[in-house]
Structures are given as C-alpha cells and as structure tokens.
Amino acid sequence: GAGVSQSPSNKVTEKGKDVELRCDPISGHTALYWYRQSLGQGLEFLIYFQGNSAPDKSGLPSDRFSAERTGGSVSTLTIQRTQQEDSAVYLCASSPGQGGKLFFGSGTQLSVL
Amino acid sequence: KQEVTQIPAALSVPEGENLVLNCSFTDSAIYNLQWFRQDPGKGLTSLLLIQSSQREQTSGRLNASLDKSSGRSTLYIAASQPGDSATYLCAASNAGNMLTFGGGTRLMVKP
Questions:
Q1: Partner-chain residue, chosen from B34, B96, B103, that has the shortest CB–CB distance to A55
Q2: How many interchain CB pairs under 8 A, A with B?
Q3: Which residue of chain B is at minimal alpha-carbon distance from A102?
Q4: Tens digits of residue pLDDT in A55-111
Q5: Strand pairing class (A10-13; A43-50)
Q6: B26 interface with A at CB cutoff 8 Å
C-alpha cells in the first residue's frame, strides 16, 4: 500500500474487555514495530518483528499484551483485560529492513473507560 | 540501556529565524539516528536518517548532524516558517534494531 495503515483509528472500550489493534505495513517491508505514546509522554517501544518472528518482546508492559504477525505482513496487537492505564495512542511503523528509515501509521487512539 | 534526551522541550521563535534542536544519547554504539516530525493527532513523519558512518544529512531547509563520540545530534532548520510548527523527535537505533526516542521538542514558529 501507499503507507502504513492502522485500524481502528479510535477505540473506546470498557475496563476488563479485550481489544485488537491492526497494522498493515508498507508492502515489502520486512521490519514492523509497535510503539505506545501516552498523553504528554514520549514513545515507548513495545515489540519489533523481523518477518514473522519477534526477536525482542522486552517492551511489552505485561502478559496482558501480545502481538503476532502473519505472512510477513499484517500484525495485530492484542490487549487482554484492558486497564485504564492502557489508554494511549498505539503507533505502528514499518521499515524495508534493519537499520532503514521508519514509516509510521497514524495510530490507534485507545481509551479505556 | 540507551537513553535519549532532547533539549529544549519547547521552543518558540519568530518566522524567518534559523534554529537548532539538540539530541543527546548515552550509548554511542548506534546503527543510525533518525529525526522525525509529529503534528498534533498524527503519526510520525521521518525527516532525516543519519547512518553511524555519516556526519550529516541535508534535506531542503533541514540539516542534521551526528557526533557519535560525544553522543550528540543536532537538527538545524533554516529560515523557519509557521508550517514548521510541530514536535520534533530524535531516535537512536541500537542492536536488535530497536529505536529509542527522545521526549521531543515542541516548536512554535510565529508569523
């Protein structure tokens, strides 16, 4: 595609519910990243995929967070039993390969009530 | 663990001024350093990428420099315009291809 696409753009959910966030990277990009940006805060690294494998899961805040990538393309970030502190903008980025320029999507604004 | 700091946190300048944004990082074993722009409510747009072997990159009115030994990078914006108003973020890439971001500099260019 023309750019990194994320869906939904906005998600409001109740505390305790599960949510799935989707990222469609630029076609052919092998590297995919998830970041979280809380209000007034910097970007927090969550997870990185090279192809379908995630060599670095150290950034996931808790075991309620998981992510997968299939076919070397689409990735989903799942948050189980959401908490209010999970409210943030979740940003996805892709890159042609290691050390390349990152291209970001517009993000998913998650609000947990 | 890499730490990236950006100074100042906010900057307001009149239109036409040249300005410098600063970025410092603690671990000099970087693969590259990138500068991004973020507009309110939007994602990040990549501005410049400097590989570890390079000293600077230029794009239009933007020039980014890199000094690995001192752990510093600067983003120079020439002849600033109101459209340059945004938050500017730098990010250092280390082993494992993980980017560590600074807190950003919020720039306001007044007409």
A1: B96
A2: 57
A3: B46
A4: 778 789 999 999 999 888 999 999 999 999 999 999 999 998 777 888 999 999 999
A5: unpaired
A6: no
In the block, tokens 């950006």 appear at B6
What percent of chain A is helix, strand and coil (3-state, nearest 5)?
5, 50, 45
In angstroms, the CA B8 to CA B23 distance is: 9
Return the exposure string of B51-74: e unless at least 16 CB atoms fall within 10 Å of the residue's CB, then b.
eeeeeebeeeebbbbbebeebebb
Cα-based angle B67, B73, B79 (whole degrees, multiple of 5): 125
CA distance B30 to B26: 10
Q: For residue B17, report the phi and psi dihedrals to the nearest 5 degrees.
A: -75, 150
Q: What is the pLDDT of residues A12-48, one digit of tens each?
A: 999 999 999 999 999 999 999 999 998 877 889 899 8
CB contact under 8 A, A31 and B97: yes
Tell me what pLDDT residue A1 has. 52
Residue A15: how many other CB atoms lie within 10 Å: 11
Q: Tokens for B32, please give them.
A: 């590259």
Residues of A in contact with B100 (CB under 8 A): 45
B59-82 average pLDDT score: 96
